[in-house]
Amino acid sequence: MNLSPIEMHSQFASETGPDRNSGNLDERDTVGRGRQALISQYLTLAEARGSMGFWSCDGTGSTCCPSAGLLRLLGLEPTAPFRIAEIADFAHPEDRAQAESIWLMIRSGVPVERRFRIVRADRTVRWIDFRSEVVLDEAQQPSRSIGIILDVTAQHESRETIEDTLGRYRALVNSLATMEWRATADGTPIYSQGWTALTGQLEIHVANGSWLDVIHPDDRQRVAAAWGQSVRTLSPYIINHRLRRVTGEYDWFHARAVPIIKKGGRSHEWLGIIMLHSDLNTRSGTSTDHTHELTPMQIRAARAMLQWTLGDLSDLSGISVSSIRRIEAEGERATRPASINAIRKAFEDHGVSFGEGNAVSFQNADGRHSP
Q1: Sign of dihedral through CA atoms 226, 227, 232, 235?
Q2: Strand 267-276, strand 64-66: pairing
Q3: Is 92 exposed, middle or buried (0-12, 13-18, 19+ CB in 10 A)?
Q4: What pTM did the predictor assign?
Q5: What pLDDT does residue 115 have?
Q6: By three-state DSSP, how is residue 117 classified?
Q7: How far is CA 191 from the centre of its chain?
Q8: Percent of the chain with pLDDT over 90
């Protein structure tokens, strides 16, 4: 038997309401009808979007009262018979186990809350949330069950889309980075298990600002300054530095982060990665700051300072004249990092130092640097 929302409420009220033999019956009937009409309007409004439906049934399940919204959700005709005990018949084959025990739990007086797929009468598949409560009689025994079914297909698909996107993001980051890291808007690092695995530092060390302790002493001031500048200006943080690993050894890493900007231009948090920079290392026990690659202008300027020909640089670096000529014209994109490093070493072994941008300096025999 299928009833309208107002009929459902009337039947429920007649079974659970106060004793009708007391008080003014006419007045109570008027108030009752007013309440029923109001509740009916609420139910109709709630079901108007077609994403929910209500039901009520007696303790045996033989008399069920589905709302019109429930029948629409299931893809049934308005006059189609419906019994909540048969809800498992609508369940997707892969979710049948989720639905088969529902009626048994309801008859046992246990509230039910499940999410599973249904196959509607038109063969379309929808995700639903099934929720039910048991109404007790005066003897505190189950007398009736009521419930709601919500169509959550859109929410479920949105969540799956987000999870898929996050999965692809994590796969990409994991393929490139040693670890991912985050920081608050004011630049305070947020603890990450990856940081402990990489450096051995515990959460308490990160929380009290000791994360700089694992940065190489020669790089520490530069890293702190660069990070502070990025936080103040909301500019991307990009730097290479040495980091003490859990083994106690230092390795060169490339770190970068970007601010996640909220509406209004305020930073919400920072998201960053740390990548092992295999092309940056130490040589012969000396520390060389490889925080920037050579530019064509730097190579030409260094040759001019040393009065080297292309042949001289080729002999000392082991890089062919044609490759050097191409590098000076096109930059580091024209060759392998190993070739750039060989050229750099040849210059640095003869007193040339390279700075940010196109800066080049030369250390004279008296130890002074000349630009």
Answers
A1: positive
A2: unpaired
A3: middle
A4: 0.47
A5: 93
A6: strand
A7: 16
A8: 16
Judge whether residue 20 has pLDDT over 50: no
Tokens coding 221: 């001031």
Residue 76 φ then ψ, to 5°: -100, 160
Please state, in angstroms and rounded to a whole number, the distance separating the CA atoms of residues 350 and 66.
89
Q: Which domains does the chain have, with CATH numbers?
A: 5-156 (3.30.450.20), 177-276 (3.30.450.20), 296-370 (1.10.260.40)
First to last CA, the chain: 95
- R_g over Cα of the chain: 36
Query: Contact at 8 Å (CB) between 116 and 130?
Result: yes
What tokens does 209 get?
């600002």
Q: Residue 11 — pLDDT band, cuts 50, 70, 90?
A: low
Predicted local confidence at residue 50, as pLDDT: 65
Q: Which residue has the tokens 């949105």?
A: 158
Beta-carbon count within 10 A of 273 CB: 18
Q: What is the mean pLDDT of residues 93-119?
A: 90
Angle, CA of 113, 165 and 188, to the nearest 5°: 95
Q: What is the DSSP letter of 138?
A: T
Residue whose tokens read 């919204």: 69
